[in-house]
Amino acid sequence: MGxxxxxxxxxEFFLIGASMMIAMFxxxxxxxxxxxxxxxxxxxxxxxxxxxxGFIIENHSVEKILHFLGTGSLIIAHYYNxxxxxDYKSCKIKQRH
Length: 97
What we know:
Elements: H1 9-35, H2 39-56, H3 60-89
Helix pairs in contact: 1-2, 1-3, 2-3
């Protein structure tokens, strides 16, 4: 009974939507304020595409695979966003201004 609400489609959309909004804020902030590199944004868009296709497809096995790949893409996007921001802040790369 404890986590049954997580199987509800509304909560799935809500949790994924909230995660995507937070990720979009992090990617935009890193791009605009610090590094200006498009790789994290590209990976974030890939994540959005994979999740969207996963929601459209009715096959639960395919949905799980696409959501797993989307999650991996989002993790990699966050890693590169963090790495590029860290490199920028530590002056390992030239400022883009």
